[in-house]
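To the wet lab folks,

You asked to see what we're planning to order before we commit. Fair enough. Below is the target structure as tokens, and below that is the sequence we designed to fit it. If anything looks off to you, flag it before the synthesis order goes out.
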């Protein structure tokens, strides 16, 4: 993102918009963007999730005694 004193951010959950730059999203892997629309940012997040599925934590009951 540009270092501008006039930058205004609109944040909602993991998606946010920076005027004059575009849409971004945050994930564990970092910040991604800019995208032209929130829809395009959401699509990119969906591709990221598909590419790197979350590893589910092991349940205590699954551990060998």
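Sequence we intend to order:
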């Amino acid at each position: 993102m540009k270092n501008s004193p006039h930058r205004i951010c609109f944040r909602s959950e993991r998606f946010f918009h920076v005027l004059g730059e575009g849409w971004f999203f945050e994930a564990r892997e970092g910040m991604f963007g800019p995208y032209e629309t929130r829809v395009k940012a959401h699509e990119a997040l969906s591709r990221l999730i598909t590419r790197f599925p979350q590893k589910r934590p092991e349940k205590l009951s699954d551990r060998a005694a």
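Structural context that might help your review: The longest helix spans residues 38-51. The chain has one helix and four strands.

Thanks,
Computational group
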